[in-house]
Amino acid sequence: MEKFAKNHFFMLVEVKIGALIMDPNTNTPIVVLKGIDTETILPIWVGAFEANAIAIEIEKIASQRPLTHDLLKNFILETGFTLLKVVISDLRNNTFYAMIELVNDKKEIMVLDSRPSDAIALALRLNGAIFVEQKVFDVSTETAHSEADSREKTVSPVEEWPDLIS
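User: That's the sequence. What structure does it adopt?
Assistant: C-alpha cells below.
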C-alpha cells in the first residue's frame, strides 16, 4: 500500500464488464473486460469466490449480512474516502495486478494494491470507473500470441472459445 501517492500518468483505457463466463478448458471463471470506447477485450481468470462477489453485485442480489466487499465499501464511505477509480495496472508472469485509488476530503490520494477481482467487485459496489493500463493489453496480446504459437507446435487440438462477447 502506498499511503498517499502522487498522480500516476499512464495511458488508461476505460472498460466495463463485457461478460462473466467459464473457461471451457479449465472450468475456471473469467471476467471479460471490454473497452468502453474501443473493441479491446481483456480476459482475467478469477477464483470462484471472487466471481461470485462480482456476479452478486451485477445481479443486485442483496445478502442478509454484509459480505467482504460490502464491508470494505462501508469502511471506505464511513472514513470519508471516495473511490476515484480502479486500475488493472500490470500483468507479470501470468498474474494481473490492480490498484484501488481513493481520495479523502483533503484531496489526498491513497493507492491500495489489490487483486483485479477485488478491485472490480469494489468498483461495482461504489459505482466506480474501471481502467486498464494500455501496457496490460499489450502484454496480454503478446502472451496470447506466444501461447497460441506454442499450442500450434503441439499435436493436441485447440478448443474453440464460445462467441459470447458482443
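The two ends are 36 Å apart (CA to CA).
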